[in-house]
TrEMBL record:
Keywords: Hydrolase. Coiled coil: none annotated. InterPro entries: Isochorismatase-like_dom, Isochorismatase-like_hydrls, Isochorismatase-like_sf. GO terms for molecular function: hydrolase activity. It comes from the Bacteria. The keyword Membrane does not apply. Signal peptide: none annotated. Pfam families: Isochorismatase (PF00857). CDD domains: nicotinamidase_related. Residues 5-178 form the Isochorismatase-like domain. This is Cysteine hydrolase family protein. It comes from Pseudomonas triclosanedens.
Amino acid sequence: MARQALILVDIQNDYFPAGKWPLVGIENAADQAARVLAAFRERGDLVVHVRHEFTRDDAPFFTPGSEGAKIHPKVANLPGEPVVLKHFVNSFRDTDLKAILDQHGIESLVVVGHMSHMCVDGATRAAADFGYPVTVLHDACATLDLEFNGVKVPAAQVHAAYMASLAFAYAEVISTAQYLDR
């Protein structure tokens, strides 16, 4: 079987109800991410946490050094689990994520996290461009309502559109239960 890693993208405090940028369905998505995290740990597979911080103190969320920028306790990293700090949407851009995966001989990835339409999308597309087969667990991801050109788009539709797009050409997109039942 191919060496597989779990990438947890931006499961951070600011996305939860008490944070600066709460997402729709965040608690359930984080619970699903915690389930798959437990399975990876049990198997002894590589787990990589990705944490976003903006580079300026006036950022709308994930301000440097803030409580909101910390990894949420539901998926907190254990000693020895790499934590990649990023400053861009793409988890691979200007980080050591690719080097960590290469060092461990990783051949395929499972991606969970937030936001579906930004950093999950960015990480998944970049990983696929690097040649990794990627599986996204759609119910372990969350996003928020958006607006474009006067049109309000509910979070469920934003999420569905991005999962459909990723499933078309970049990743296998399945539920956490489907993944764990394999």
